[in-house]
Amino acid sequence: MINNYLPTKASKKRCFLLIGLLLSLYLVENSPITKYLDNQILNYILKPMLWGSMALIVWIFPKIRSKGLLKLKGLINIWAFNFSIIFIVISVIAGVIDGLGKSPYDHSLRGMLLNILLVGSMLIGREFVRSYIVNSLTKEENYVVFVLVALFMTFISISLNRYFKIDGYVSGVKFTAQYFAPEFSKNLFASYLVFLGGPIASIIYLGVLEAFHWLSPILPDLKWIITALIGVLCPIFSLLAMQSIYLNQSKEIKVSDKEEDSPISWMITSIVSIGIIWFAVGVFPVYPSVIATGSMEPMIKPGDVILVKKIVDIEGVKKLDIDDVIQFKRGNILISHRIKEIVEKEKEGIQYKTKGDNNSVSDSKLVKPEQIKGKIVKVVPKIGWPTLLIKSKDDIPLDQIEF
């Protein structure tokens, strides 16, 4: 019985066979042949059968145990669930701040059942294979294996069309941040989970995330940079936390190490990281914005990040004075210019004439109090250039746009 759970040369050969089968399945799914098949048959009959077959193949293979202690498997599964809920809660909070949108998926009973069949079969097949591969290649905590498996799983989880749409450096940066990096982070954590708890742990973690994505009628509609931050940070810190929890419970670390790597330390790190995300999306009274053009040079240059103190009521507006630099919204754009004159009209009330320091004339329209977002309190040079790299000149409709 014990021999069935020991890694063997044969098991490693089987894991490479599974890699070949996964790659073949990926190429078939992305081949032109699928255009000639009925979508209903392809998605709800053929794909579930193929992915189910992958799980069945692994089930038939001799068992290879995961590294985690049997008595801790329940704990691992509970924390896998907890971390998936944390991911969702953070995403929803960011969505409340940044925007929520209606899900594009079918939410009729039939539609949800069909999506559960498709996504569920893919998830089970993929995680059974992932578990077999990881636990065949290593019986110790080996991040080279985890990273390589995560890279492979990430590659086959993104359609070939997405790769073919990368047509330059800018689109490559956006693709990596919005799709590849978050998917890789989830796959890295999933690879660690199967190492500790087998396929059930990663199915729980990814299954809850997929269930929310496919079954929730409302989803967070986040900017790509926020998607990248949450998608990368949450799984990575979940991995660090899971590692700390397991090592403490399994008594595999010394007392001195517990003090250095206690759950309190990773919780503080996670809270700080989440705080950075919330700061970026504007939860706090001061928020950052990246300047795209030079209308406020030399004070503010392209690529600089400004810190804007929010103005949320009329009292804050009345405190503004001549020479203050404000950020205001005009149409769909944000502009950061200096107040040159305060104009009082009987009907309209207080309005502000603004001008960019580097512009030859004042802005053509007066700024109304309800347009004002805040007052610039600090300029941080150059750290906003990564954001500008994904913006083309065609994206800038006016000379004074602030992104």
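The above is record 1. Record 2 follows with the same two-line structure.
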Amino acid sequence: MHSAPAPSKVVRPRWPRQFAQLILAAGDDAARAVLWAKVPADWRELVQLHIAQADGRTEQHVRQQERLRPAVRTVTPTFAEYRPPVHVPGNAVVAAQHLAALRATIHSPRVSQ
């Protein structure tokens, strides 16, 4: 794949579309005004047309991207009501209950018979 070499020097635009590209690429209004002053009078209408078309495409692209953006959720999430924790007996309590049950079976009158 060969790409076109970058121009080594600044070339004066030869077509209205090239002027429009330069004006659109200019950052601030002062730079755009300087470039507008360099546009030949017979090309100004064409350059303005190219800039309007490019702005229209940019606006269309922005609108399309906004449509594709997910909707903003304005509803806050609902939280579950507070429920106090249920007491679960620990291992020591369960072990004591089992030991008490075993002692009760050992001391029951049925075992001693």
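The CA atoms of residues 45 and 79 lie 61 Å apart.
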